[in-house]
Amino acid sequence: MAAKPSGSASTTADGSAGGEPRFDEGRWETHPVTPERFEDFADVINPTRRAYSCWCLSHRLRAADISELGGDGPDNRERAMRALCERENPPGVVTYLDGTPVGWCSIGPRTEIPRLERSKLIRRVDDVAVWSIICVVVRSGHRRQGVVGHLLDGAVAYAAAAGAPAVEAHPVDPEGRMDTTMAFVGTRSMFEKAGFTVVGTTDAVASRMPRLVMRRTLT
Length: 219
Known about the structure:
Blueprint: E1 10-11, E2 17-18, E3 23-25, E4 28-32, H1 38-45, H2 63-70, H3 76-85, E5 92-97, E6 100-109, H4 114-117, E7 131-138, H5 147-161, E8 166-169, H6 188-193, E9 197-206, E10 209-217
Parallel strand pairs: 7-8
Antiparallel strand pairs: 1-2, 3-4, 4-5, 5-6, 6-7, 8-10, 9-10
């Protein structure tokens, strides 16, 4: 359900003009994490605003990148993430249910994710200019409400609206429930439901399980 650009204006899922990409499904909305939506993003991934939180940067940026964007000090990660939100391609999307932020998906062009682009464990499978999903988070208190499906649909729509030819993810395929500390990578079944297929494997592991390369082609 990708929104399509119209001239210089962004569009909503129903084709109407808006100030930013917006992907609506009735009670559900998904928006790129622009500076105005930073606090909503924080409500999902760091509700207590801990200074030493990951701020969803550990798998995106190297330490040098974080220092370059956020400087020094205990809140440099937050400042670095705020800086990313000001870029042409904000580093992810927030999904809302009845106006409440309930989900976060870190996504962007692979070339804009230094840790991934330079990874020796998750190498490219070809030269397609993919966008990559590196983290999926459902807000505490809102699990088992169907958030993930809407979140992934919105993330893919965001990438499609920006002209991405394909979106990739690197989940695992657990036989049962997986360690919640590694749940951010997602599962094979979760991405299959969102239209992704397995196109390769990686040398990376999560919860002692091999991570796959899954892709949804958009063009």
